[in-house]
Amino acid sequence: MLKEEIKGLAKKYAPEFIEVRHYLHANPELSYEEYETSKFIQQKLKEFGIPFEIKAVTGVVGLIEGKNPQSRAIALRGDMDALPIQEENNISYKSTKEGLMHACGHDVHTTCLLGAAKILNELKDKWEGTIKLIFQPGEEKNPGGASLMIKDGVLENPKPSAIFGLHVHPGLQIGKLSFRDGKVMASADELYFTIKGKGGHAAAPHLCVDPILIASNLIVSLQQIVSRNNNPYNPTVLSITSFQGGTTTNVIPNEVKLKGTFRAMDEEWRFKAHELIKRLSDKLVQSMGGELDLHIDVGYPSVYNNEKLHALAVEKATEFMGKGNVEETEKRMGAEDFGYYTQLIPGCFFRLGVMNKEKGITAGVHTPTFNIDENAIETGMGIMAWLGSSVSIDKE
Predict the structure, then answer these.
(1) In a domain, 396, yes or no
(2) Are 194 and 292 in contact (CB under 8 A)?
(3) Are residues 208 and 120 in the same domain?
(4) 296 has which bridge partners?
(5) Rounded CA gap, 183 and 146, in Å?
(6) Are 349 and 167 in contact (CB under 8 A)?
(7) Looking at the structure, do residues 209 and 67 belong to the same domain, yes or no?
């Protein structure tokens, strides 16, 4: 049985790919700078005998043809960039680069995809269709490596009928997977405000136009965008996260800069909210005598899991993992550029349990102590190989 063969090879090769993860973890690279990581992936695919091409400078796309390669095409995606975080773990494979760390598990995602690639290639006479392996750069930084890969034709020749993406879940116990259909993760847009006033002596505010007062009113007023314009059942977040202005106690500054983020799960509401933010901000600042420069940096779209593909994936995952080990994952207001893929083809973005409370492995992603129970790698490479080889969905 194919399932049992995949499980057997995942167990057999797990130690090899744990070492792969150690190398990747020790050698992190930032978004769009993954040159050595890309070379490493290319070398591994050469070793496995898998043809590949380069996309978006550092992206790598491998192709494995099974029986009847024209019958179906499925894409499997793993991201590979790291974060500007100083690692605090005391481990033998700790990051060797000052201020850089694989704190979001992309080293794990790349490792699992490489492991799945080796398994699928070894068993390619046992499954039908074509598997496209997408090793993607730049997930952590706008405009998102997924968008660049798509522009470079990653979803063509052949065009996949579906795409799967795996992400570590530090709140899910080792040996478990979690899935969700429909709205899974939010869009993410960055807000940049410059509020210009007229500075002067703090003891003579009547001679000034105080941008600090204007900015303070704006921060409070912006919350009505969500609380009074959005459907309460539609998850949305607007957070102002940076307030920069003034240097001393007795001077009102000429300007204040604010930064923030806007998150939504409904694309229509997302862009309606942008217009509301612009209108409210402009009118409020003007009414208080100031001037406004506002830039909304449109980021990743929301991630939407195709319902049909989700149902098939959960069915296959349950076969592979056992009923008690497949859970429903929670909605998240975090963002993922996997959403670019799900706008174009059916996608399924799911979670891999990496937590082990008994071993004290519980730290969240984007923290300097994030790590995983590496037994998850056997699960991750196995499930990616199984989903890629067993799920079939009609092209939409």
Answers:
(1) no
(2) yes
(3) no
(4) 191
(5) 19
(6) yes
(7) no
Asked if 68 and 155 sit in the same domain, the reply is yes
Contact 270, 264 (CB under 8 A): yes
- Cα gap 214→185, rounded to integer Å: 33
Confidence (pLDDT) at 255: 98
Q: Taking Cα atoms as reference points, which of 355, 338, 356, 354 lies closest to residue 346? A: 338
Instruction: Please indicate, yes or no, whether residues 274 and 345 belong to a single structural domain of this protein.
Output: no
pLDDT, position 392: 83
Q: What is the extent of the structural domain holding 74?
A: 2-185+303-390
Q: What is the pTM of this model?
A: 0.94
* Residues 64/123, Cβ–Cβ less than 8 Å: no
Residues 370 and 382 in one domain: yes
Of 251, 276, 297, which residue is a domain's last? Answer: 297
Residue 65 vs residues 44, 68, 129, 210: alpha-carbon distances, Å:
17, 8, 6, 66
Q: What is the CATH number of the domain that holds 211?
A: 3.30.70.360
Same-domain pairing of 192 and 178? no
Please tell me whether residues 58 and 43 are part of one structural domain. yes
Would residue 37 count as lying in a domain?
yes
Distance CA 341, CA 365 (A): 23
Q: At what angle do helices 267-287 and 211-229 cross, to 10 degrees?
A: 150
Claim to verify: residue 78 and residue 158 sit in the same structural domain: yes
Question: At residue 257, what is the residue type?
Answer: K
Buried/exposed 192-216: b ≥16 CB within 10 Å, e otherwise: ebbbbbbbbebeeeeebbbbbbbbe
pLDDT tens digits, 162-209: 999 999 999 999 999 999 999 999 999 999 999 999 999 999 999 999
Q: From the first residue on, what is the mean pLDDT of each consecutive set of 10 residues in the chain (396 residues)?
A: 97 98 98 98 98 98 97 97 98 98 98 98 97 98 97 97 98 98 97 98 98 98 97 96 98 98 97 98 98 97 97 98 96 96 98 97 98 98 98 70
